[in-house]
Amino acid sequence: MNILLMGNPNVGKSVIFSRLTGVKVVASNYPGTTVGYTHGYMKLGDETVEITDVPGTYTLEPTSEAEEVAARMLENGDLVINVIDATNLERNLYLTQQLLERNIPMIVALNMWDDTAHRGIHIDLEKLRALLQVPVIPTVAVTAQGIKELVENIPNATSPESPIRSSDERWAVVGHITEQAQHITHRHHTWRERLGDASVRPLTGGIIALAVIAAAFTVIRFIGESLIGYALDPLFENLWAPVMLRLSDLLGGDGFFHDVLVGQLINGEINFVESLGLLTTGLYVPFAMVLPYIISFYLVLGLLEDFGYLPRLAVLMDTVMHRLGLHGYAIIPSMLGLGCNVPAILATRILESKRERFIAATLISIAIPCAALQAMIIGLVGQHGVQYVAIVFGTLFVVWVILGLILNRFTKGLSPELLIEIPPYRIPPWRTVLQKLWMRTYGFLREAVPIILGAVLVINILYTVGVFDAIANFTAPVITGLLGLPKEAVTAIVVGFLRKDVALGLLAPLSLSASQLVIGSVVLAMFFPCIATFVVILRELGVKSMLKASGIMIVAALLVGGLLNLILQ
Amino acid sequence: MPDGRSVPLSRMEAGQSGRVVQIQGGQGMVNRLGALGIRPGRRITKVSSMFMRGPVTIQVGNAQVAIGFGMAKRIVVDLS
Question: Is the ipTM of this complex over 0.90?
């Protein structure tokens, strides 16, 4: 049996999904968190049933790609759990009516039930059940309240006779149901609502946005630097380095295995950034340089997501984003891109048109460095002073804007207008925030660490075989002539195809000047995306758009790198 | 039909309420707005609008919706 979880966006389907199946999925407080579908399984009596977390949709007449996915899924379902936001009964019931017309057994989860009372909403459950003729179970997914009852009632799902109606007729039925089953009393605005309204007013909204962004940066830096300075660096330097020196001795100080495992000793010491051994640099880069910023970035992003701030930022940024051929909601995939480009490019599905998706994905893959690369930039370029880090990020931001203006001008088609629901501010329970942080951190450890280790291994082998020398001589005119970097820097660009964090690390032993490091960082960020991003762009946009995006990438990276070379050196 | 008390949503003041009387757009736009509960006869309150023809935020029932300026111009609201 296949059970579908369906409902409007941002009603808590993913949280219910996690509760039912134990499968952890990312849930946030904004419409469109789930853009693909996730399957999971649960026990129902003696039977194992499949549960599908369907992307949220307001209507079965799809208006975006995520909604199309939802409409298609319905054809393969045997039963629907319609998740309804109890604080928004009327609008949610429109989809319920459409689902009833499909004659598929249904049960309703009336979620966010705890939120109704203080919002002055009173729902008569018995009346609602009688009017809908399906089981209605009040739930609070974040605390698991009502989930047991929901599961117990799945066998009671019914499919009452329901004629196919026109949109006006549906709204009439919905109006009748809400009038009968819901009663609203007056109440005063809460501070969260006032803050919510202030966040979308021009003046107060701007001030709040600046404050939020400044606070986010400060917290990310503080947590990242503290983790490195007080925990991970001491751990590696004081505990791991002596072990590695010992191992170096045991392996005889040189030879292939020594170089692969420990790497090159620099002045008789382990240098975790430059030694390039699997057990030295291969562990230090992911765990001591990148991981701290992954943790701090995703903690802050998770808080912003769950509190419900991002859609408001979308409203504030809408006018600006239109100049770049996007609308405000594109700010959400862009922010995700600061963590990792892969989920960011998937998230462009929340944008309505192909044109927007192409522009957004191209801008993300060129001008938005992922957290891993940012961590390395801060770690390596930062040694020469904060101003150089600022030049790197400033350049990428200018590229983002100018490239957006150009793409807007020369990409065919029109960009649709912003039309989004703004969720209320919610205070997320710490448990859910930490759970999401752990999911994303674990995702990094599972997916990135093996590739980083693989990249270090490949680098060692290619060095030994001498492949890099051949490439370096071949590309020297561009690397040295145009970008002003030593010809060996091409290894970083080649390795950048695997992982950009390791790639940037390869620039460390070349004793570059601060300006050269800046150029290297910018070119590496803009040049070809890492293989994971490459695959996801190819899958999401198709071969043609991928080739177009790659062409733009190469030209833009060389152009900007060349310009920086002229200006800085 | 819109009369003297009817204005486009884009021209309403923040805090003003009214009833949607007409959506001057194609079926696609009518459907998209309708799905969010914005349809003729519905009472809405304007929360804010961004300057430089930025989006308009409105309250519909218990939900808030942000609407691009171009669309907001084509939603006619009766203020009486």
Answer: yes
Residue type, A197: D
Of A35-44, A260-269, A361-370, B13-22, minimum mean pLDDT range:
A35-44
Question: From start to end of A376-514, where are the E strands?
Answer: 419-422
- Cα dihedral sign for A49, A54, A59, A64? negative
Q: Does B43 reach chain A within 8 Å, measured CB to CB?
A: no
Task: Please say if the pLDDT value at position A31 is more than 80.
Answer: no
Structural domains of chain A, with CATH? 2-184 (3.40.50.300), 202-568 (no CATH)
- The string of DSSP letters for A370-439 reads -HHHHHHHHHHHGGG-HHHHHHHHHHHHHHHHHHHHHHHHHS-S-PPPPEEEEPPP----HHHHHHHHHH
User: Which residues are within 8 A (CB) of A541 and not within 5 positions of it... i.e. 6 or more apart?
Assistant: A357, A358, A361, A549
Interface check for B52 against chain A (CB to CB < 8 A): the answer is: yes
Longest dimension (CA), chain A: 84
**Does A71 lie at the interface with B, CB-CB under 8 angstroms?**
no
Read off the DSSP letter of residue A254: -
| Joined tokens for residue A279 | 């057990």
**In chain A, positions 309-348, which contact chain B (CB-CB < 8 Å)?**
311, 314-316, 318-319, 327-328
Tokens at A435, concatenated: 């759970």
Cα–Cα dist A530/B1, whole Å: 57
What is the per-residue pLDDT across A533-544, written as a single tens digit (0 to 9) for each? 999 999 999 999
B53–chain A Cβ distance below 8 A for any pair: yes
Give Cα A309 to chain centroid, integer Å: 15
The domain tally of chain B equals 1
- Residues A202, B54: Cα–Cα separation, whole Å: 9
Q: Do A329 and A418 touch, CB atoms closer than 8 A?
A: yes
Task: Print the domain residue range for B35.
Answer: 6-78
Q: What is the pTM of this model?
A: 0.91
pLDDT digits (tens, 9 = 90+) for A237-259: 999 999 999 999 999 888 888 99
Continuous segment of H or E residues that includes residue A139: none
**Is the CB of A420 inside 8 Å of chain B's CB atoms?**
yes
What is the least distance, in Å, from the CA of A421 to any CA of chain B?
4
Interface contact flag, A59 B31, Cβ < 8 Å? yes
Which neighbouring-strand residues pair with B8? B76
Q: Which tens digits make up the pLDDT trace of A468-478?
A: 888 999 999 99
Strand-strand pairing, B6-8 and B75-78 = antiparallel
User: Residues A351-374: pLDDT tens digits?
Assistant: 888 899 999 999 999 999 999 999
pLDDT of residue A154: 96
- DSSP three-state, residue A215: helix
Q: Where are the alpha helices (DSSP H) in A55-113?
A: 65-73, 89-101
Residues 6 or more apart whose Cβ sits within 8 Å of residue A474? none
List chain B residues with CB under 8 Å of A197.
47-48
Q: In angstroms, what separates the C-alpha of B23 from chain A's closest C-alpha?
A: 14
What are the beta bridge partners of residue B75? B23
B5 and A CB contact within 8 Å: no
Assess if residue B43 is contained within a domain: yes
Q: Are strands B43-49 and B56-60 parallel, antiparallel or unpaired?
A: antiparallel
Q: Which residue of A has its CA nearest to B67?
A: A419
Phi, psi of A26 (to 5 degrees): -75, 125
Q: What is the CATH number of the domain that holds B22?
A: 2.30.30.90
Checking DSSP bridges between strand B63-67 and strand B6-8, what pairing results, if any? Answer: unpaired
B1, part of any domain:
no
* pLDDT of B4 strictly over 70: no
**What residues are paired with A269 via a beta bridge?**
A266
- Whether residue A180 lies within 8 A of chain B, CB to CB, comes out as no
